[in-house]
Specification:
This protein is an alpha/beta fold. The chain contains nine helices and eight strands. The radius of gyration is 17 Å and the shape is globular. The structure holds cytidine-5'-monophosphate. GO terms for molecular function: ATP binding; CMP kinase activity; dCMP kinase activity; pantoate-beta-alanine ligase activity.
Length: 222
């Protein structure tokens, strides 16, 4: 039998990564972090001498890039390798995070990554997280979840993540501003903007523990 595809979309900081990874683990499906792919492209641009506005040069850069994703197993996080270089950590910096929304709005970037994602999903058996999975990448996904939370709650979660990494010169207000800006850019772009698919189930995670969210999704899948 064909394994299902589960699409988990939503804004930055709604808890998609942790939840998607755990759901994949629990259901023995492959975890697909599409945000990491867009981050890899932003990293590539940041470490080139191409201007971030130069769409045609970026298209060329991206078309020549080789991407490799090693899904998380055991306690290992997802490994992202671009042109032979392991950038798994480097794609999480604030510099890359700030650049990824504008870079992910370019057609050449989206085309390359969506094709890659659809190729990976051909046989099913995937839990994919992103912004356009249910609307654009896998419109026929068996289960679609739209994960949300208030800006305040999302900023608090991000702050905790940064603090856990020993990063403590970022303020809650700055994180709220960054999240609002990324939400605005992701929902207002022309190509595959962030929005809830008409057949997605919306799950607001304010006040819910990670465990509760995971259980709700597994219940929905079953
Ligand atoms: O989920 P994450 O925060 O890693 O995503 C980083 C950025 O990548 C998003 O803010 C969005 O601009 C872009 N993205 C996208 N489409 C996806 C996944 C991520 O445009 N499917």
């Amino acid at each position: 039998v064909r394994q299902p595809i589960i699409a988990i979309d939503g804004p930055a900081g709604a808890g998609k990564s942790t939840v998607t990874r755990q759901v994949a683990l629990a259901l023995n499906l492959t975890y697909l972090d599409t945000g990491a792919m867009y981050r890899a492209m932003a990293w590539l641009v940041l470490h080139s001498d191409i201007a971030t506005e130069d769409e045609s040069a970026i298209a060329e850069l991206v078309s020549q890039a080789t991407l490799e994703f090693i899904p998380p197993r055991d306690q290992q996080p997802l490994q992202v390798i671009i042109n032979g270089e392991n950038v798994s950590q480097a794609i999480r910096t604030p510099e890359v995070t700030a650049l990824v929304s504008p870079i992910s709005a370019y057609a050449a970037v989206r085309e390359k990554l969506v094709t890659y994602q659809q190729e990976l999903g051909k046989l099913g058996g995937i839990v994919a997280e992103g912004r356009d999975i249910g609307t654009n990448v896998f419109p026929d996904a068996e289960v679609k979840i739209f994960l949300t939370a208030s800006v305040e709650e999302r900023a608090r979660r991000r702050l905790k993540d940064f603090q856990a990494q020993g990063e403590d010169n970022i303020s809650l207000q700055q994180l709220e501003k960054d999240i609002q800006q990324r939400d605005y850019q992701d929902t207002h772009r022309t190509l595959a903007p962030l929005r809830k698919a008409s057949d997605a189930i919306e799950l607001n995670t304010d006040g819910l523990t990670v465990e509760e969210v995971i259980n709700k999704i597994i219940h929905l899948v079953q």
